[in-house]
Amino acid sequence: METVLGFDFGLKRIGVAVGNTVLRQAQPLAVIRAATNDGKFAELGALIREWQPALCVVGLPRHPDGAEHEMTVRCRRFANQLHGRFDVPTVLVDERYSSAVISYQRGETIDDRAAAIILQQYFDDESQS
């Protein structure tokens, strides 16, 4: 059984989810809210040390037609930084419709649930291949 962490990257917050390769069920874990890049990676490092994932899954946003935009580039960079800083394999998953699946409630942070949807999509796609 190996642990897998999923990430919904944002400029202000990073949603984190956890799952494993046996149950293949993602669940929300945390929301990283550090104000600085160093602070964000310090919190991410603590989670990675605690959970020791075999893989990190990062949501890759795109326009509905599949075209890339500014956040697509930022998410690729984030995935590369996760891999480079923590030496954990990282994969990207299309997250175009992950936010649409979550019903937004005023004042509620949904980033960790979006990360869980991204991670669950990875598990579901992998079981189909």
TrEMBL record:
In terms of one coarse class, where is the protein primarily found?
Answer: cytoplasm
User: SMART domains this protein is in?
Assistant: YqgFc
Entry superkingdom: Bacteria
Keyword presence, Transit peptide: no
Sequence ranges assigned to domain YqgF/RNase H-like in this UniProt record? 2-102
Which cellular compartments is it found in? Answer: Cytoplasm
Enzyme class, spelled out: hydrolase
Question: What EC number(s) would the UniProt record show?
Answer: 3.1.-.-
One Gene Ontology term from the biological process aspect of the record? rRNA 5'-end processing
InterPro entries from the xrefs? Answer: RNaseH-like_sf, YqgF, YqgF/RNaseH-like_dom, YqgF/RNaseH-like_dom_sf
Gene Ontology molecular function: hydrolase activity, acting on ester bonds; nuclease activity
Gene Ontology terms: cellular component = cytosol
Keywords associated with the record? Cytoplasm, Hydrolase, Nuclease, Ribosome biogenesis
Looking up SUPFAM superfamilies in the UniProt record yields: Ribonuclease H-like
Q: Per its database record, what is this protein's job?
A: Could be a nuclease involved in processing of the 5'-end of pre-16S rRNA.
The family assignment reads:
Belongs to the YqgF HJR family.
**Which PANTHER family does the record cross-reference, listed alphabetically?**
POLYNUCLEOTIDYL TRANSFERASE, RIBONUCLEASE H-LIKE SUPERFAMILY PROTEIN
Name under which the protein is recorded:
Putative pre-16S rRNA nuclease
Q: Please name the source species.
A: Oxalicibacterium faecigallinarum
